[in-house]
Design a protein that fits this description.
InterPro entries: Cyt_trans-like (IPR004821), PPAT (IPR001980), Rossmann-like_a/b/a_fold (IPR014729). It catalyses: (R)-4'-phosphopantetheine + ATP + H(+) = 3'-dephospho-CoA + diphosphate. The record marks 16 as: Transition state stabilizer. A five-stranded parallel β-sheet has the order 3-2-1-4-5, sandwiched between helices. It is globular and about 45 Å long. The longest helix has 17 residues, at 91-107. The chain has five helices and five strands. The protein is an alpha/beta fold.
Length: 138
């Protein structure tokens, strides 16, 4: 089975790696999709994020790709993936993810979204907080 793991991954951190590790126990092949999140202000340096993820992961079952302007469901279809991987940290994430799930099911009822809960010690910091800390440490 193949799956995609979409996200802005800005930066890719231990929580993302934790979710990926869990997903690798289920899926034969995973495409990490570095995506622009229209709800977040982030840089458009997709190549840099892609390189960092490749270095962090280094697994032949994982492929890192860039998505600048396609819907997640279209990427899943393009790579013949039956599942979308998502991570959950909190009840706030769940509320957002429920809408995300419904939207994707509307677009293609045959592609399933599977959720992983990151381990407790990995879910404390979001990418946004990590970037903010790094900014103040400059």
């Amino acid at each position: 089975m193949k799956a995609i793991y979409p996200g802005s991954f800005n930066p890719f951190h231990e929580g993302h790696l934790n979710i990926l590790t869990k997903a690798l126990n289920i899926f034969d092949e995973i495409y990490i999709v570095v995506t622009k999140n229209i709800n977040k202000i982030n840089d458009s340096n997709f190549s840099s994020r892609m390189e960092k993820i490749n270095k962090a992961v280094n697994n032949p079952k994982v492929h890192v790709i860039i998505n600048e302007n396609e819907l997640t469901i279209e990427i899943a279809k393009k790579y013949q993936c039956s599942h979308i991987i998502r991570g959950l940290r909190s009840d706030t994430d769940f509320k957002y993810e429920l809408e995300y799930y419904d939207g994707n099911k509307f677009l293609d009822p045959n592609i399933e979204t599977i959720y992983f809960i990151s381990d407790h010690e990995k879910r404390k910091l979001s990418s946004t907080i990590i970037k903010e800390i790094a900014n103040y440490k400059k």
